[in-house]
Structure formats: C-alpha cells, structure tokens
Design a protein that fits this description.
Layout: E1 15-23, H1 33-39, E2 42-51, E3 55-56, E4 76-77, E5 82-87, E6 89-93, E7 99-104, E8 109-112, E9 127-128, E10 132-144, E11 150-158, E12 207-215
Parallel strand pairs: 5-8
Antiparallel strand pairs: 1-2, 2-10, 3-9, 4-8, 6-7, 10-11, 11-12
Length: 216
C-alpha cells in the first residue's frame, strides 16, 4: 500500500558532523617543567552535529478501523491544511442518534482525527520531530609525570550551548519512539500538545562532567 511506504523512524536523512582537536602549542617545548605543565599542555576538542528530523506517525487515539483497539490508528490528512496543525472532530448524528459523519473543528488543519469508523488517509511517519543542532566540547589539562606517564584532568560538556532539543532518546543515540512522556497525546490531532515534542521528550539539557585519567 502507498500509505505504508515511508521513511523509517530511524531514518535521519542528512547528518553533518564536524570534529575538531586542538593540541595547544603554548610552551609545549619549554625547558621549564612548571611553565610547560601548569601554563601549557592543554587539549581542546569539540564536535558539532546538525541532523535532519526523525519522523513519527500521527494517530487518532480512537478505534478508527473498528478492529477492537486504537493502537496505531492513523489520522486523516488534509493536503491543503496548515503544515503541522491538527484538529479534533465533532460527530454528526442522524435522527436515530447514529453517527453518519464527522465535522472537523478546524477544517484548515493538516491532520484531522479519524473518528470511529472513518477512513484514515495519513501515511506512516509523516510528522517530523525537531532536528538536532548540537555542540559537545571538552578541555583537558595534561601533566607530564615522566616521559611515558601523564596525568590528565578536564571538563566535558554535552550540548554546550544548551540548545533545547526534544528528540526521541538522547542526542547522540537512536531510541525507539516509545521512550516518550504523556502517552501518545503529542501525536493526536486536536490534543493541546499535538506536535509539541517538548511535552513528549527531554530537551537534552547541557550536561557537564569532570574527567581525570592517567596514561602510561
């Protein structure tokens, strides 16, 4: 089926990574042990990552296909709707009280809930999650103990600039979609947190750690 042809949930189509290492030359060859090891011997590294979005399945949250559950039942796609918006529906009943159709609360939405018995037309994995725009950084101070032994102490920071990045899992890993908060509400059109991934995933805030090691 055409609706089943889609990018994988793990498909991040474009990824740019720039890794830098700067072994500071300051006083590196100075004859003074103090100047070389206290004022010099710094190693600075950084990694910049820019990555295109992962995609999620927009769901209705009701038993649209009447198979006895609501798991994975998709929404109706409005091709001319405002990108990234969603709408709930109101049931239209006949004189006997039976539902004969549904009216979109917001007919200008891109995604509309497929009510019970309605035909969902949205494909798989069509809603983009936020992209990754991340800088990791570390600075290490090296102390030469002997010619072959060295003590290193420094700081490492993930997401140095603290960019909010509400993506599934962690910035540098790929995790399944089910690691989210608030159930599936962020995927259901008409819900107040629809398409608000900050309500579903961690923002991956800056994390700073101290590192010490001995090389020999």
């Amino acid at each position: 089926m055409t609706a089943e042809r889609a990018d994988s949930a793990l498909d991040r189509r474009h990824r740019f990574t720039l890794a830098t290492i700067y072994d500071a030359p300051w006083l590196k060859h100075n004859d003074s042990w103090f100047l070389k090891n206290i004022l010099g011997n710094f190693l600075i590294t950084g990694v910049y990552t820019l990555e295109s979005p992962e995609y999620a399945v927009v769901q209705s949250g009701v038993d649209s296909n009447l198979n006895g559950d609501s798991a994975g039942d998709r929404a109706i796609l409005n091709p001319s709707g405002v990108k990234g918006t969603g709408s709930d529906v109101t049931a239209l009943n006949n004189s006997a009280g039976r539902t004969v159709g549904y009216l979109a609360v917001n007919p200008n939405a891109q995604y509309i809930v497929a009510g019970v018995g309605a035909l969902a037309t949205a494909g798989r994995n069509t809603l983009p999650t936020p992209r990754i725009n991340n800088i990791d950084f570390s600075i290490m101070k090296k102390f030469n103990i002997t010619e072959s032994k060295q003590f290193q102490f420094g700081m490492q920071a993930s997401n140095l600039l603290n960019h909010p990045q509400a993506v599934p899992g962690a910035i540098n890993n790929i995790y399944p979609q089910d690691t989210h908060l608030n159930g599936r509400n962020y995927l259901i059109p008409g819900n107040r947190i629809f398409n608000d991934f900050t309500q579903a995933f961690s923002s991956n805030p800056r994390a700073v750690g101290l590192v010490a090691r001995i090389t020999f």
